[in-house]
Write a structure and sequence with these properties.
Helix 9 packs antiparallel against helix 12. With 357 residues, the chain is of the alpha/beta class. Bound molecules: zinc ion (ZN).
Length: 357
Amino acid sequence: MIKPASKFLHVSSLLASRARPSYCKTLLVKAFSCFFLFLSFAVAHAQSTKTLNTSPLAQADFRTSHMPYTAFDKLSHTILKIENVTLKVGFAPGKLDLSNQQILNWITNSAEVVSKYYGQFPVNNARVLIVPAQGKGVKTGQAFGYRGAAVRVFVGEKSNLNDLKKDWIAIHEMIHLALPNTHQRHLWLAEGLSVYVESIARVQAGQLSETFIWNGFMKSMPFGLPKSGDKGLDYTHTWGRTYWGGAIFCLLTDIEIRKQTNNKMGLQDALIGLIKKGGNNERIWSISEILEATDYATGKKAVYEQYMKMYNTPIKPDLKKLWKDLGIKKVDGKIVLDNNAPLAKIRQAIIAPRKQS
Ligand SMILES: [Zn+2]
């Protein structure tokens, strides 16, 4: 959910009246379920649990609009060491059908998917707050950075292991930790990256099939195209333009980097370069610094150039032609991949697990 203070985007209100095809509910819910706060202030896994003697806390203390850092730090917590990151996981008061260990395993798996994509976890320390909620399934999530990287996820009390297996929210929020805070007008970049990278990372980790994510992109990316009267991505903040317009930017940039580097590098390399330059959500960077750091990694200017094309101008790429060129088509309701299409090798490279350097 997007529940920012008035200075931030309030996408949920923009969406309240939109009619949506039933298929897209899952992907559309993605947008509702995440809130990334920009400029909000100004394999072996070790596990240990620490219990603090504190005064009783109520669940309401953990349902605040911003990350309740102070309340979180009074909770008992479990330390998970995964790759380079130390995750401090705390459970807000409330009951869950799932055991704490099952939740911890899910958080561990999510962090592993993100680490595999970036070659490391985006930050070295992060708080993870689990808040029990009504109902079933992982409900919503948020990412914060202003007092240290933090992720809060609301989990339905009736959730089961299958709900955790299907979940994308924990990974989506962890991906937000990989981008510096910047001006709120670039929120589409943060959400676009989380939507796009989550899909690619889960294919690379073996959680999703290639056809599943291309099917999702084919169905949902049209929501990101500009409508009549829309401006460039920096200036039209509707749900479609923010989430799926941002995802279109990511796909086009990925393809462009691959074209310019003979398919040796892609957006993934650019994003890894950003982290290596110290970019993560505990930092506040200008958009220029973000673009420079991503392009530095590939030695090209593809990210900057794509940004310049889309930030102020409502460009409308021909998605049908793009799918055809990538070799993705739908036959009798099923996705069929054509490996002889002009951009088929690029499509294959996008989802191929990256060799660790
Ligand atoms: Zn998000």
